[in-house]
Amino acid sequence: MILADLFSIILRLTELAFAAIVAGLNGDYLSSVHNADSWQLGRQIYTEVVAGVSIFFAIIWLFPFSGSFVHWPADFAISAAWFAAFGLLVDWLDGNCG
């Protein structure tokens, strides 16, 4: 059981780190864009919200108060939100990455 708790903590820390990276990069882009309304920036705003929710739940569930893998339905929903966010950003890039 100790190994499962340790594995859960490691996964939560990586979730927290990657969500913070996405939130920072996306927040920097949002702050640098001028003269754009929220409709044009909807994909980036959605990605920022998903990153914020992911950071919130990663901090809440970082320490295993209950069973290690009890929160899997919420983890599945957050994963689906990340998949949608990255899909929206890839569609927005339209093959012009880099």
Automatic annotation (TrEMBL):
The chain crosses the membrane at residues 6-25, 45-64, 76-93. It is a multi-pass membrane protein. It holds the Pfam family MARVEL. It is found in: Membrane. Signal peptide: none annotated. Its main location: membrane. Residues 8-95 form the MARVEL domain. InterPro entries: Marvel. GO terms for cellular component: membrane. Keywords: Membrane, Transmembrane, Transmembrane helix. This is MARVEL domain-containing protein. It comes from Thermothelomyces thermophilus (strain ATCC 42464 / BCRC 31852 / DSM 1799) (Sporotrichum thermophile).
